[in-house]
Amino acid sequence: MKATILKISVFVLFFSLMGAGCEKDEELFWEISPNNKSAVIQKEVNGVEFKFCLLNEEREPATVFNQGENFIFYFSVTNKSSEKFYFYPGYAYSEENDFCKVYNSNSQSEGKPYRMITVLNIGIGAYPFDIGDSYIFEQPWVDVRDSIWSWEKGTYDSTQQQPLDKGDYYTAFQYRFLFERPGDNPTLSTDTLRFKINFKIQ
Question: In what side-by-side order are the strands of the sheet with 114-119?
Answer without folding.
Answer: 114-119, 154-158, 149-151
